[in-house]
Amino acid sequence: MPIGITALGTYAPTRVLTNKDLEGMFDTSDEWIVSRTGIRERHLSGEGEFASDMGVRAVNDLLARYPGVLDGVDLVVCATSSPDAYFPSTAALIAGQVGLNGAGALDVSVACSGFVYALSVAQGMLLAGTARKALVLGAEVLSKIVDWTDRSTCILFGDGAGAAVVEEVPEGYGFQSFVLGADSVGGPSLYKFAVADRIPGVPVGEGNMMLGMNGREVFKFAVRVLSDSGEKAMNKAGLKGSDIDWMVPHQANVRIIESACQRFGVSMDKTVVNLDRYGNTSTASVPLALREALDDGRIQDGDQLLLVAFGGGLSWGAGAMKWYGGAGKRAAAQEQESDQELVVQ
Ligand code: UT7
Q1: CATH number of this structure's domain 3-171
Q2: Where does ligand 1 bind, in terms of residues with CB under 6 Å?
Q3: 3-171 shares its CATH topology with 175-327
Q4: Domain map of the chain by residue range?
Q5: How far apart are CA 308 and CA 226, in angstroms?
Q6: pLDDT tens, position by position, 152-194
């Protein structure tokens, strides 16, 4: 039974923080940030807004695009690096607010690789018969866990969310392969403390409670795993670089994406990049990029996609899929029909 994404909604807060704004906050420059990362601005949540709020708004967008699409959802999986609480899970909080109380709900904690992991978790649970239809989210308020006095990290991150419906799709569409991995040796390069002020490899007392990162180490790791895991996901699905219509990578740094593309022979023209306007939104970055490329018509029904992501853990996740645009077309046709009915009335 092929499983795939049939609907996708996203949300980014309206408040925008530009590189120019950052110049007024500490010693940095638009030129430094753009040349080192490609990022020009990021969206920030308001004071009382958290990951579940981002997720609920992404679901509202989903419902506006595909009315009734949550009917039958019996599983909610939320990938997040900045959950509202340890528990209740952010997934349960979102489920409660979007009319899915009673559905199975769990969070996936794999930092920025989380959305790809969550898709694979949902696919597994659907194939096992545990659930029939899943809502998979990536929801973040990274701006609330970065240290705004650390100029080498806070310039990178932004807030937002994506919400996807995952269910059975027609033969020839959907997920073809997933490759997931983690290597705790690299853990100290990207971390956020929780209960224990202790992570193997991070000198005791060195970390404050905000996100900690060794940018250079993460950079080298990212270039390697993006291409390696992407390659493995393609091999597993019997694909080669030239088969890929669109690569949708985690949006962390355009230099990482360029180097990875070079390593495994996918052209930048076939790669979706929108980090200039969002920064790194962790688990929300892949759905935000995917939605943008659907909206502007780059990604079409039947396109061969490759999703690749990396993050804290250190972790990585890649997935090959044939995009199923059928549900979107149906929703658009329904909308047209109801518009016509309104005109007739
Ligand atoms: O989802 C995964 C999240 N993490 C990542 O993707 C991080 C991957 N790494 C990176 O993107 C890059 O390593 C950074 C953008 C974080 C840093 O770029 P870099 O080219 O590796 O710079 P660097 O850390 O080697 O720092 C170079 C210089 C340093 O000054 P000195 O020591 O050479 O005098 C930094 O202090 O740049 C300085 N610097 C800054 N200057 C202006 C660091 N941050 C800034 C800043 N503005 N915001």
Answers
A1: 3.40.47.10
A2: 28, 32-33, 36-37, 112, 151-152, 155, 213, 215-216, 218-219, 222, 252-253, 280, 311
A3: yes
A4: 3-171, 175-327
A5: 6
A6: 999 999 999 999 999 999 999 999 999 999 999 999 999 999 8
Q: ω before 88 within 30° of 0 (cis)?
A: yes
C-alpha distances out from residue 313 to 2, 110, 283, Å: 30, 7, 14
pTM over 0.85, yes/no: yes
Q: Any idea which fold 175-327 has?
A: Peroxisomal Thiolase; Chain A, domain 1 (3.40.47)
Catalytic, 208? Answer no
Give pLDDT tens digits for 255-286: 999 999 998 888 999 999 999 999 999 999 99
Convert the pLDDT of each residue in 233-249 to its tens digit. 999 999 999 999 999 99
Q: Which residues contact 254 (CB under 8 A, 6 or more apart)?
A: 37, 38, 273, 275, 276
Of ligand 1's listed atoms, the one at least distance from the Cα of 37 is 15
Q: Which of 43, 250, 253, 261 is catalytic?
A: 250
pLDDT over threshold 80, residue 340: no
Closest CA to 282 of 94, 148, 81, 84: 81
Active-site annotation holds for 280: yes
Active site includes 43? no
Catalytic residue among 112, 154, 253, 261: 112
